[in-house]
Amino acid sequence: MIAIDAMGGDNAPQVVVEGALNAAKQGIALTLFGDALVIKPLLDALDPLWSSLPITVDHCSQFIAMDEEPSFAVVRKKDASLVRAAHAVRQGRANALISAGNSGAVLAVSTLIIGRVSGVLRPAVGSFLPTQAGSFFCLDLGANVDCRPEFLEQFAYMGHCYVAQVKKISSPRIALLSNGHEPYKGPTLIKQVYAQLEKSQLNFIGNIEARDLVYDTVDVLVCDGFVGNVLLKTMQGMAKTMSLWIKKEAEQSLLQRIGLFIASNVFRRIKQKTDYARIGGALLLGVNNPVVLAHGSSDAYAIENAIKFTHQIVQEKRINSFNNTLVSYLNKISCRSLLMSPSSEMQQSV
Amino acid sequence: MIAIDAMGGDNAPQVVVEGALNAAKQGIALTLFGDALVIKPLLDALDPLWSSLPITVDHCSQFIAMDEEPSFAVVRKKDASLVRAAHAVRQGRANALISAGNSGAVLAVSTLIIGRVSGVLRPAVGSFLPTQAGSFFCLDLGANVDCRPEFLEQFAYMGHCYVAQVKKISSPRIALLSNGHEPYKGPTLIKQVYAQLEKSQLNFIGNIEARDLVYDTVDVLVCDGFVGNVLLKTMQGMAKTMSLWIKKEAEQSLLQRIGLFIASNVFRRIKQKTDYARIGGALLLGVNNPVVLAHGSSDAYAIENAIKFTHQIVQEKRINSFNNTLVSYLNKISCRSLLMSPSSEMQQSV
Question: What's the whole-number mean pLDDT along residues A238-259?
Answer without folding.
Answer: 79
